[in-house]
What does this fold into?
Amino acid sequence: MATNVKKSNTDDTWFFGHPKGLVTLFFTEMWERMSYYGMRALLVLYMSGAVTGFNPGLGFTQIDAQAIYGIYVGMVYFMCIPGGWLADNILGYQRAVMIGAVIIALGHFTLALPLTQTFFLGLTLVVLGTGLLKSNISTIVGQLYKDGDARRTSGYTIFYMSINIGSFLGFLICSYLGEKIGWHWGFGAAGIGMLFGVIQYYYFRGLLGNAGIKPNDMPDEQRQVYIKWSRVTIALMGAVIVAGLLGFISVDPRAFAEYFLYFLGVVAAIYFAYLLLLAGLSSQEKKNVFLLMILFVAAMFFWSGFDQSGGSLSIFARDYTDLSVVGYVIPVGWLQFANPLFVVIFAPIFAGIWTNLARVNLNPSYPLKFAIGMFFMAISFLVMIAAVELALVSAPVGMQWLIITYLLHTWGELALSPVGLAAFSEYSPKKYQGQMFGLWFLASALGGVLAGLLGGDALVEGLESMTPVFDSMIQFYVVAGIVLVLFASVSYYLRSRNN
It folds into this structure.
């Protein structure tokens, strides 16, 4: 397949009525998510597993394992900000995705080595590679469409299905190999999946045309300054990583996770303040950024609950859930099939609902859709509280409790995540688009770190500590949903008056 296609593909409708470049991004994202979720399903189980016996783990405490899990998820998405900046200003989006995919594959193959010393090195490589790939591949999706193209939201929903097909494959393959044969076999399978993604993207990137092929226009002198300081920053970051891996820097995981959460919050606040006050945006662009800031905060707290699937809910599945199916004890990670399976089933339904509502001018605003996601998340943890109370009386409980919880998570996810991608694609200032997608994923970073901290609190005393933590989360989701509804109502009223 030629890779030097120069024409735009925005008018092509080859792939389910969408630009044909979407197929390249679809399969690249599918394999990347297969590797990410496949490995993530093993992470807490491996870290908290006993150091002796069949398939020995690292023997970390639940507090440390959950904190490291949160730090890892947070770092994965935090690095999308510098990754987006590099693509905006130096690499271009297509090149950034290619480099990131290769680094991710190297990270998973490093985790596959049966050495404790390579564990954190592998995680670091996956973090760095994902920072280059994740936000930038989403940016390219948006650039396949012209401004005002009504297909954009449904295009992101199709793209979102690739994430869940990939995660389904990851849970299926990596969980079985990791839990039933050996942890490092599971990590190796994630690496092979990412290698497929690298090969597919390399040979079919020509379908993307000009979408994301070049960084932002700027004087050569300015770009050279950016390149110089990027090299210095990368060298300093590499020195810190090497010092940590060699043991010259040691940290308490829980304390680091807490400080990292504060740091990410400050970064987000400073960046939004810069955009609103110093970036020279027009009045309309500032209004758009304010809307995105509201959605950012909501998404952060949504992901703090959603990411419990790889943390506290995974431990609940392992220790308090009956996993036998017709006499066979399934891997813990297979319960997480529910989410990607439900997404594949319900994503077309949600996309159809939004499209049909739009035709009669009743399509809910972005904040209203986010509010729906919040309410679904609140209901999901009500289900989990019922499961915990039952387990306190007679554990193990049936797996249907977790399946229902994941169904509700999925409905909330479909009301929020592809919608958020579409919102950031539509309303981000054009010259900051790569960085704004990085900012969108910073919400996932904050949510991931918070998920690790909440998961540790929920498990500190076993089942007894789960109910109060989940109850606090429910209260927040309800309040946040109500605030989003009020914000949407006020915005609609002000627009009506101006018209």
The mean pLDDT is 88. The chain is about 75% helix and 0% strand.
